[in-house]
Amino acid sequence: MLAIRMQRTGRKGHAQFRLIVQESRRTPSSGNVVAALGSYDPHTKAVILDKEVAQKFLDNGAQPSPRMVMIMQKEGIKLPSWVKVDDKRTKSIKHTEKLRRNQTPEPVEEVAAEEVVADAPAEVVETPETAEAEAPLAETPVEETPAAEEAAPEEAVETEAEAETEEVTAEAESSTSSDSAAETTEPTEEKA
Asked: Are strands 16-23 and 35-41 parallel, antiparallel or unpaired?
């Protein structure tokens, strides 16, 4: 069986190839060549190929190598149906789950930030822009303004009361935990 393949020529570090037809059991470097079809320079991608002779050998059953299939396709040679054509060579990537494009954004951090904002009391920071925006509102008389002012002190009193109850419960818990710790240490001393 005949094979259509590339035979390396050229100096070290600057490869050039002959496009040859050869007995498939022989190595390209053996020199026993049935026919020379042309040449290929991978540096400039220049291809010189005798298309008629290549088509004749393909029709008679010569097997092209995968690289020769790509070169023949680019040159417009019609390949028989039995020739295996790799549409795209894909490079396998190890650990694709570690790629940034495959990682999902972590919503956990955003949720934690939202909880912190919800727990913290709302603080209003006045910037010159907000002060200017509020100035026209203050000039227009509104009847609901006194009611809003009355509600604000009540809310302040409620927040102070809540803070005091939290402190008391925290003190009670700490005293309870220290009492239980003292009780656990006393029986061990008695046994010894």
From this structure: antiparallel
Asked whether the whole model's pTM tops 0.70, one would answer no
User: What one-character DSSP code corresponds to residue 97?
Assistant: G
| pLDDT (0 to 100) of residue 101 | 81
pLDDT for residue 16 is more than 90: yes
Q: Do the beta carbons of residue 4 and residue 54 sit within 8 Å? A: yes
Q: Rounded mean pLDDT of the chain?
A: 74
CA separation for the pair 46, 10 (Å, rounded): 15
Q: Reading across the β-sheet that carries 2-9, which strands appear in turn?
A: 46-49, 35-41, 16-23, 2-9, 63-64
CATH of 2-75, one of 3.30.1320.10, 3.20.20.100, 3.30.420.10, 3.30.300.20: 3.30.1320.10
* In the block, residue with structure tokens 């496009």: 19
Residue pair 75/15 in contact (Cβ under 8 Å)? The answer is: no
